[in-house]
Amino acid sequence: MTDEKNIYEYPGDQVDVQWDKRLCIHVGECGRAVGDLFVGGRNPWCQPDMAASAQDVAEVCERCPTGALTYIRKDNGPTEVAASTNTVLVANDGPLYFSGDLNIDGAAEDMGGVRYRAALCRCGASKQKPFCDNSHRDIPFHDQGAVGASGDAEVDAGGTLEVKRAPNGPLLVNGSFTILTGSGRQAWQGTRAALCRCGASKNKPFCDGAHKAAGFTAE
Q: From the DSSP assignment, how many helices (H) and strands (E) are in the chain?
């Protein structure tokens, strides 16, 4: 049911599901989905054949905002594609949720789910950097996800969004994307930004150089 790389596989007749526990921060989109695809306490907790269709399985897996859940269809049905617009949601007291056509520096080759969905640390404490591991809850980290800047008025949607890590510094994001506030408001759009990942910036989600004074260290 599992391999040494922390990826659990749940086979079904029409579709297989994979769960990468390194990426999971237990948002609960799977467990709260209607139906018996995912049932907490059951062994195995994921049973693809309990869903009404392979498409239902795909839709529930794609709700996972971290990329921890992926699927492989065996019915020749459509597979996951990138959202038409790249977005970064600044979660209330939580991570940066990326969605779109993502190319994330620091992702292992077998982390296939983060091709389209990812939760990246912005509190500075994750032991799975650049990915969130819920350390923001233990610190605790507080930021409601407000965004003051508006960015560029006109930006073409789509295309690859590259996310690189400045050594001991911010996330360097390049490509067309929109930043959403914690309340869901479309706040900023542009093609280039340095986003805080040390947790100390006074201009969150943007970097203001505070990582230097904070002594932040990370690849």
A: 3, 10
In angstroms, the CA 210 to CA 170 distance is 10
Closest by CA to 119, choosing from 25, 5, 16, 15, is: 25
Asked if residue 90 lies in contact with residue 178, where contact means CB atoms within 8 angstroms, the answer is: no
Q: What is the pTM of this model?
A: 0.95
Asked if 99 and 87 count as a contact pair (C-beta separation under 8 A), the reply is: yes
- Distance (Å, whole) CA 108 – CA 210: 28
Supply the DSSP string of 121-132, one letter for each residue.
Answer: --SS--SSTTB-
Alpha-carbon gap, residue 195 to 7, rounded angstroms: 29
Residue 196, pLDDT > 90, answer yes
**What is the chain's alpha carbon radius of gyration, rounded to the nearest angstrom?**
18
CA distance 211 to 48: 44
Sheet of 7-10, strands arranged across:
7-10, 15-20, 69-73
pLDDT attached to residue 155: 83
Q: Return d(Cα 100, Cα 43) in angstroms, integer.
A: 33
Domains of the chain: 7-73 (3.30.70.20), 87-214 (no CATH)
- Is the Cβ–Cβ distance between 191 and 204 less than 8 Å? no
Residue 50's Cβ-side half-sphere holds a number of Cα atoms within 13 Å equal to: 15
